[in-house]
Amino acid sequence: MNFWETITGSDLTREWKAFEARAEALPAGYRAAWEQIKGHLSLRADFTGRNLMPILDNALGLLEETAADGRSIHEVLGDDIGGFCAALAGGEGARSYRDRWREQLNRNVARKLDRMGG
Predict the structure, then answer these.
(1) Above 90 in pLDDT, residue 22?
(2) Residue 59 sits in a domain of what CATH number?
(3) How many CB atoms lie within 10 A of CB 30?
(4) How far is Cα 73 from Cα 71, in angstroms, rounded to an integer?
(5) Cα separations in angstroms, 72 against 56, 66, 80, 87, 106
(6) Containing structural domain, residue 77
């Protein structure tokens, strides 16, 4: 990856297209699970989403292996795809960008109130 690709995000676009092409080759139930995984993991992305690329690659690889082995999605992911994604992204209770923004907002409001004497 060169500097220009990093700045423009073209490397991410290329990777994303490769993920989607791989996902299209999956059976329908696996594609549905992929869509759910993307939705759950997107909540844990940083500003660019670059932090999720290796996680998404591994999740898609797991789906591909599971499909090739003839195992069911339920057998591998269980009933809680959201919990599975939380574990992939850093464990149960891992903070999302919303959590970080909420904490920052609360700190800023508390500082303003302290300055106002309230």
Answers:
(1) yes
(2) 1.10.1900.10
(3) 20
(4) 7
(5) 19, 7, 14, 20, 44
(6) 3-116
DSSP assignment string, 78-118? -S-HHHHHHHHTTSTTPPPHHHHHHHHHHHHHHHHHHHHT-
Q: Which of 49, 40, 65, 47 is nearest to 15 (CA)?
A: 49
Q: Output 30-33 pairs: Cβ under 8 A, ≥24 positions apart.
A: 30/63, 30/66, 30/67, 30/73, 33/63, 33/73, 33/77, 33/81
Q: Examine the pLDDT at 14 and tell me if it is beyond 70.
A: yes
* Other Cβ atoms within 10 Å of 66 Cβ, number: 19
Calculated CA dihedral for residues 70, 92, 57, 12, nearest 10 degrees? 150
CA angle at 92 for the pair 104 and 48, rounded to the nearest 5°:
50
pLDDT (mean) for 38-60: 85
- Write out the two tokens for 9: 């995000």
How many domains does one find in the chain? 1
Residue type, 4: W
